[in-house]
Amino acid sequence: MRAQFVMSEIGVGLRRNLTMTFAVIISVALSLALFGGSLLMRDQVSAMKGYWYDKVNVTVYLCTKNDALDAAGAAAPGAAAGAPAASAGTAASSGRPCAKGAVTPEQKQGIESELKKMDLVQTVMYESSDEAYKHYKERFGHTALASVVTPDQMPDSFRVKLKNPEKYEVITSAFAGRDGVQSVADQSTELDNLFALLGTLNWAALGIMLVMLIVALLLIVNTVRVSAFSRRRETGIMRLVGASGFYIQVPFIMEAAVAGLIGAVFACAMLGTGQYFVIDHGIALRDKLQLINFIGWDAVLTKLPLVLVIGLLMPSLAAFVALRKYLKV
């Protein structure tokens, strides 16, 4: 097989169907750009999970005197109408937190000791109400609510850092509702919602990519068939002189492969442009959103060879299947 003949046939085929070839290139480029973008989105979500979950703390808030008064008042709603006041035991039976009063030193010591004995706990840090009030003023001192908050309204708490932040339910189930504990708060709930949203967006991108991929495949098959029909005389002569089926098919397959490869190159360019102008420079999200651990060029570069291989093989296989049915060789 002469390479010069094959290359000339590829050039002729691409020029004859220039409009459809252009449509194939655009469709392949968009579908592969979405494919690469979805892979990068998955890496980004994984990087954010590793970055943020490592900083997640479980906070065990302890009961205060105010909590005990609120629980007692809620447990005895009929006191104002002459009903006997509810005792601490009655309030406790209502199932409300802090019904037995503010946390005692013994309860506090027991909670801290039990936390430190748990295998999944990495560190335990105690924060007093004064320290909590100071941190609150630092974060929300500019708000109107901060002016009416007093230190005695801020509960003491234990800040617990876990070895595996995804097992925060163990702490919640062990301490929620026990004497002296007001509540157990976990910061990963908000993160789970964020990552669920990002995961949904990723699946949406994959869905759009799949639609674009089907469109690209249909265009490739159509382009190959039109090209084969426009050169049916040449292929008929080649068949009469004894040319093999593979020899006849190669120019058409190579046309589809070249168009797909050009589209893949454009897809790689779009991915690189997005990383450069959106993340690193231009919009520069990396500088503006420093709380987010953005992926780097290493993640992008590892996806480009896969995009190129798919851009080369996908049109080739589509053309091969279409030609076997159309040319019957």
From TrEMBL:
<comment type="similarity">
    <text>Belongs to the ABC-4 integral membrane protein family. FtsX subfamily.</text>
</comment>
<dbReference type="InterPro" id="IPR004513">
    <property type="entry name" value="FtsX"/>
</dbReference>
<keyword id="KW-1003">Cell membrane</keyword>
<feature type="transmembrane region" description="Helical">
    <location>
        <begin position="21"/>
        <end position="41"/>
    </location>
</feature>
<dbReference type="Pfam" id="PF02687">
    <property type="entry name" value="FtsX"/>
</dbReference>
<dbReference type="InterPro" id="IPR040690">
    <property type="entry name" value="FtsX_ECD"/>
</dbReference>
<keyword id="KW-1133">Transmembrane helix</keyword>
<dbReference type="InterPro" id="IPR003838">
    <property type="entry name" value="ABC3_permease_C"/>
</dbReference>
<keyword id="KW-0131">Cell cycle</keyword>
<keyword id="KW-0132">Cell division</keyword>
<keyword id="KW-0812">Transmembrane</keyword>
<feature type="domain" description="ABC3 transporter permease C-terminal">
    <location>
        <begin position="208"/>
        <end position="328"/>
    </location>
</feature>
<protein>
    <recommendedName>
        <fullName>Cell division protein FtsX</fullName>
    </recommendedName>
</protein>
<dbReference type="InterPro" id="IPR047929">
    <property type="entry name" value="FtsX_actino"/>
</dbReference>
<feature type="transmembrane region" description="Helical">
    <location>
        <begin position="260"/>
        <end position="279"/>
    </location>
</feature>
<dbReference type="Pfam" id="PF18075">
    <property type="entry name" value="FtsX_ECD"/>
</dbReference>
<comment type="function">
    <text>Part of the ABC transporter FtsEX involved in cellular division.</text>
</comment>
<feature type="transmembrane region" description="Helical">
    <location>
        <begin position="300"/>
        <end position="323"/>
    </location>
</feature>
<keyword id="KW-0472">Membrane</keyword>
<comment type="subunit">
    <text>Forms a membrane-associated complex with FtsE.</text>
</comment>
<feature type="transmembrane region" description="Helical">
    <location>
        <begin position="203"/>
        <end position="224"/>
    </location>
</feature>
<feature type="domain" description="FtsX extracellular">
    <location>
        <begin position="56"/>
        <end position="184"/>
    </location>
</feature>
